[in-house]
Amino acid sequence: MKTVAANGTWVGSKPPLLRFLDECHAKFSADDDGAVADYIPELGKADPAHFGISLATLDGHVYEVGDSKVPFTVQSMSKPFVFALALDTLGAARVESAIGVEPSGDPFNSIRLNAENHPFNPMVNAGAIACSGLIHEARDDDAFEYIREALGRFAGRTLAFDEAVYASESATGDRNRAIAYLLRTNAVLKDRVDSVLDVYFRQCAILVTARDIAVMAATLANRGLNPLTGQQVMTPYAISRTLSVMTSSGMYDYAGEWIYRVGIPAKSGVGGGILAALPARLGLGSYSPRLDSHGNSVRGIRVCESLSSHYDLHMLNRSDDARTSIIADYTISKNPSRRSRRPHERDILATHHEQVRVIELVGTLSFSNVDYVSRQLAGKPRPQFVIFDLHRVTSLTRAGARLVAEEFRELAAHHVTVVLSGVKRGSREWDIIREWTGGLTNVRDFYLLDTAIEWAEDQIVYRHGGAIDFHETTELSEQPLLAGLSTEELTDLASIGTVRHYRAGEKIVEAGTPAASVFFLRSGAVLVTLPGGVRLATLTAGMAFGEMALLEPTRTADVTADMAATAYEIPLREFERFRKQHPRAGERVMRNLALLLADRLIVANTKIDVLTSN
Ligand code: GLN
Q: Which domains does the chain possess?
């Protein structure tokens, strides 16, 4: 439904997801359970009524409801980002040697360390302080700015910092000080406790909004690629490890319950924020300062629970049907290329059509989809050429690419040539395919499916004794349009024609201009295209073009020489005179034309059939 806004412009109807978030906001606003954190005195000043929700999609749209633009301190939601930053800055080995990845089952501020006297995981204070210590080791006085910039890349903007909250926690945070001394005495912290804690307290006081959190979460959900800025802000390795510890420990001693009920990796902060990142789907940010006994925002938890259950988003509740990835699977008998073939070529192709198998794919080439496709090939007689049309493929996963490469190798071992169509050179998919199939010589690619089919057909014709020589010169007697004419008639016809020479790329016929002659191609090849660029046919020596002039006064297509070409051009006026002189021959030509058109119609119908029946 569309409505007209006051200023007269069209306004789309409300997306249902926004409507849902609105309803969540209205419903949970009434919930006054929990209390604002005040162990950091400055946090106690937060307005308990504030309630903002934001959801960012991976195509870069951000939904916002309520107080989504009210700034608050990030607190513990900084922990996943600083952990990711530490992994990318110091390397996994160094980080993992200092901090564990096991859930502690303890509250966030627990002073307990694991059996090796290391923090249980980077989501509790001990592990987070250890992470800040690692960044301090690497960046010294610059550590905090380095962290602030990293968080800013996730949010897609420069993030401010709340001096008052920082000062307040710094003045009162003795428990964290105790944790830090414990870490230092166990050599987890190498630098001075006060300088490391200064970094930690400052990072917790970075200011964000629910909107920022949604975008930061969406970046986590998108393998580290910020969907708004397009920037790859961390390595996919660091992101997947970060989401792992969020899954097992992000909600502290509520983590098990959380992943059981909600099933979305998340992180909370005592400032009232909750960040939830559903891989490959969305990022959610909520802000409501009243906390439960675990230090998690009460309304934020409600929002996440509702979103997960209403849309069935639990990450372990997934299914997929690989069979939908193939939309068409045929041999070239059902869908030949648009190239007009001479009779002996047609015969070869009709006999050997099973040698060219075309599989049109759609959507994501994932692990399951590629596996399914490979089994479709394994189950049938092996063709010499397999054309994979990837025009409708939108993405390729790493696992999918790995299986694609293994399948191509398998085909190579059996002397099957792989022909790809629809992959733009230089695209991400192209790069991945090249990377994984490097060194394979049995892979060819063409942008157009039709060109790919034509190429494979040529190979079949050639392998079965048909000559593909574009430079041979044919006589009028070989023209299907002139079949059945006597030598005398052909000689007469030749005498009224002029032999034309065309350079490669030269325009021979222009759509929209008067049709005043018919052409018979003697050598080379020409391309017939519609004005928009749609390719209708490739014609080679022995074929006619512009023959529609016999029926229509205006050219409907462009004809361009695809390589150096020669043709007989016979003016229509002369041809009319010829028809009067040789009525039988004239009638024969019109009948040949009708047969050629009927042929084309059959081919066109099969193509439509192939596209709609799958
Ligand atoms: N700065 C807070 C602290 O260390 C962060 C804790 C949290 O958000 N859970 O106590």
A: 16-311 (3.40.710.10), 326-463 (3.30.750.24), 476-609 (2.60.120.10)
